[in-house]
Amino acid sequence: MTGLSDIDIARAATKAPIRDIGAALDIPDAALLPFGHDKAKVSADFIDSLQSRPDGRLILVTAINPTPAGEGKTTTTVGLGDGLKAIGKKSAICIREASLGPCFGMKGGAAGGGYAQVVPMEDINLHFTGDFHAITSAHNLLSAMIDNHIYWGNALGIDARRVVWRRVMDMNDRALRDVVTSLGGVANGFPRQTGFDITVASEVMAILCLATDLADLQRRLGDIIVAYTRDKAPVTARDLKADGAMTVLLQQALQPNLVQTLEQTPAFVHGGPFANIAHGCNSVLATRTALKLADYVVTEAGFGADLGAEKFMDIKCRKAGLAPDCVVLVATIRALKMNGGVAKGDLGAENVEAVQAGCANLARHLENLKGFGVPVVVAINHFAGDTEAEVAAVQARVAELGSEAILCRHWADGSAGIANLAHRVAALADSGQADFAPLYPDGMGLLDKIETIATRIYRADGISVPDGVRRQLEEWEAAGFGALPICMAKTQYSFSTDPAARGAPTGFTLPVREVRLSAGAGFVVAICGDIMTMPGLPRVPAAESIGLNAQGFIEGLF
Amino acid sequence: MTGLSDIDIARAATKAPIRDIGAALDIPDAALLPFGHDKAKVSADFIDSLQSRPDGRLILVTAINPTPAGEGKTTTTVGLGDGLKAIGKKSAICIREASLGPCFGMKGGAAGGGYAQVVPMEDINLHFTGDFHAITSAHNLLSAMIDNHIYWGNALGIDARRVVWRRVMDMNDRALRDVVTSLGGVANGFPRQTGFDITVASEVMAILCLATDLADLQRRLGDIIVAYTRDKAPVTARDLKADGAMTVLLQQALQPNLVQTLEQTPAFVHGGPFANIAHGCNSVLATRTALKLADYVVTEAGFGADLGAEKFMDIKCRKAGLAPDCVVLVATIRALKMNGGVAKGDLGAENVEAVQAGCANLARHLENLKGFGVPVVVAINHFAGDTEAEVAAVQARVAELGSEAILCRHWADGSAGIANLAHRVAALADSGQADFAPLYPDGMGLLDKIETIATRIYRADGISVPDGVRRQLEEWEAAGFGALPICMAKTQYSFSTDPAARGAPTGFTLPVREVRLSAGAGFVVAICGDIMTMPGLPRVPAAESIGLNAQGFIEGLF
């Protein structure tokens, strides 16, 4: 513990030139497209040249259900990468890029914390290498081409009431959620009601993160369903001839970004799809590239293991042919206490009983993860104030469940604080124990897939499905989309759809309110609750206190 | 003449590493922030260190009124930079960045043509170094903060009917010109009618291009008037505490971009404000930096000399303390013929009379430019099909006017085709003839400034001004904005407001329909005609044929 803020620690870091970080992974200088001296993209040509190499070990970091107490999943991902490097392993990490919009709402970066951070954190939290801007442009080009097509005569017969493609902006702007466009007369087109989502919610983002190369990217972009005709026939981006120009806009963004941790471990930071209506993982290309270049690749999935890890396994790994060798389930004593019923204001006092009660949440995630055939180790991300008795309670419970819980102090001590976990993870990943299988086969019906996730992961008694949703799923199966995996969109705070139901709730039914087809990304979204795809700013936005100080450094962003 | 397309020529170019281009201007490697291997930003710290150095010569390239026949102003700017380098001068060019949106509408890049191009042209026409995306973000953050302020109680008393700050997108999207936002109920705010402009029309763009450093940038951003109260008191970006975060978003974008011409002449490509509602020049910082580093700096202004050069002189030079040493007025035989009354379809036939008639347009621009106290030389940008008699006619007329018209073949032959012009420009710039003065003094009344431009530059008989506009200008003078220069917004195709009135029209009145205050940029916009700030896409957008070819090269963009 140092008393320094994350940003103080990040600024005091000695960054290696990015070419040295690349060299540590045997990436030649010519294969790095530099962005400043501390960021680079890895060239597509070089990535193509790696295909015949063997893969390293893939380690997934996931967590118990998030609480306001914080879990430190990214911090643990970064720390474990550093820890593996410190014990002599050739390691790399893969995480998501940060969304710009939320930076101006609530304070808080997305690049780890303490002595387990990725740098340059200011750039990563702002424009970085421009990937999200490219996604915004590609998305909105398609939007403009839809209205332009209707304006010039609508040869495809698009039903203006059935345009499902909205616009996006990487900003928290509630005023754009629901708008009417094309007002002002004949020259501006046909008025219709539509809206904006935040860029990370764009299907283009999910596509970029699942695409295996430029050709696959263009194919997926072309498959996007943007609207339906009066006869309910789908109209795609390919029908509008938008897929080529969108691919051009995304050509550079598709190349993974390389940066470094505070301890100069190579870090791929690439892509950042929403973890509710999308799958919430960094790009397939970044993970695949890291696996070709490093012996141990540590990555993370969004939200808790019920949503994030399940989608990592059933969408990303299934589609990309990846298989994790080990899973790290992150918990904190504070978050376990909250799962055990303690209010945030009461977290200061030792409460072993609450920790034990909260372990019900941990235990269910642990069991679920083992169901994917992968060995699991629990990381207790240490906070000041955790007591020995509380830590011991978790370790005892996890041992009963046949796994191990290891206390980690990477936030305060960097790699030195996480050596035990690093050794254990390396041993598990090398053990050959992993025998990965997704939760359900491609051939299972769409509704059965949803029910399988609900009952086996969330432990719901069953699902409730309106007739319209049932019919819609049947229509998609008839149209050839039956083999797609499911992307669940529900609250991340509980196994159930009630965000207040912490711990391990039982006796509930999962209501499926709506389904959406992401034909380009290649999944069916099942919406089970209120899902916000365009956030708003709070009463006092962080933006009000963001600025440059006298030294030219950014203040207020973190 | 080679039969190769612009893109073929650009791709065949041998690009020097950007650090070598920097080195040619004595920019140390550490002062370059690379974007790939062929683009870089010049660091603000390095620019600060140059302040005590003497300035090189400043050469403005402008043109007669544009016609569909084309003039080649950017091509001539690039060619002249190459030509000066080829005759042994240390030269650099300064031009604007391209807007992304229009690339998907009509074909045509913005990086010169033939053997006078700036490279990498694909990047320059697409995302480049992300400057325009940063401007879009900064602009829309302010927009979001306005509606958010109203949503949370409107402590500043903003009159929702008098919000003048719209949103922007770098896309041609007519559907966004006129929209109603905040529909959908209480959680989404108060519905109001507003719209989107294209990013180049943002006042933030004009501000970035006029700011002299980060502190000046933040001051100007804070001065932006976003709305008025019920009592018509202005509400600024500073009142909303948005200026600091906007500056953070623009910190990197403010640093000028360095690329190269086909002949490896250093080229600063930075900023790109609209040439109607803004001043249409590249950034002050780029021009100032180039003047510190090169002996001869060639730059250009938007549209014809009546709009572009006048604003360059009266807004950019006045505000930045710059003074041109020589002006190059570009004309083509084809454009002169069109100004002489020939239709586009009839341009193929020799027509000396039409050329002579069209010289009325050239002559008026020439006279206007001399009025600024700067020596002028005419460049005839050669096209295949121009006849000797036609060229001779122009040269004779220009000689009568006391200047020289020099035939240039840089499009076909690069620097070898423009050596005569380069020698003449260098001699004129070195001659000490220039005694620059803007058209009107700061202290002249706002309405008088408008009338001065109208009568002395456009040669109107006078101006017609509605009472409301007159009153508005008086109010701004009373509020302390009387010393600002005027930014005229009218058609670029004529001296008058009738785009069909080519040549040198007389006997017309200039109607001033509307005035707008750009308090951050520091000018008053006088709108004299229909000004489109959000273009639409054509029936068959260029986007439909843009894509990657089998070699991974971009096709259809140019």
From TrEMBL, chains A, B:
List of residues binding ATP: T67, P68, A69, G70, E71, G72, K73, T74
Metabolic or biological pathway: One-carbon metabolism; tetrahydrofolate interconversion
EC number(s) on file: 6.3.4.3
Cited Pfam families: FTHFS
PROSITE patterns: FTHFS_1, FTHFS_2
Catalytic activity: (6S)-5,6,7,8-tetrahydrofolate + formate + ATP = (6R)-10-formyltetrahydrofolate + ADP + phosphate
Record keywords: ATP-binding, Ligase, Nucleotide-binding, One-carbon metabolism
Any single biological process term in GO: tetrahydrofolate interconversion
InterPro entries, per the entry: Formate_THF_ligase, Formate_THF_ligase_CS, P-loop_NTPase
Membrane-spanning residues: none
Enzyme class: ligase
GO molecular function: ATP binding; formate-tetrahydrofolate ligase activity
Domain of life according to the entry: Bacteria
Entry's family note: Belongs to the formate--tetrahydrofolate ligase family.
Protein name, entry field: Formate--tetrahydrofolate ligase
Upper taxonomic lineage: Bacteria, Pseudomonadati, Pseudomonadota, Alphaproteobacteria, Rhodobacterales
Gene (name only): fhs
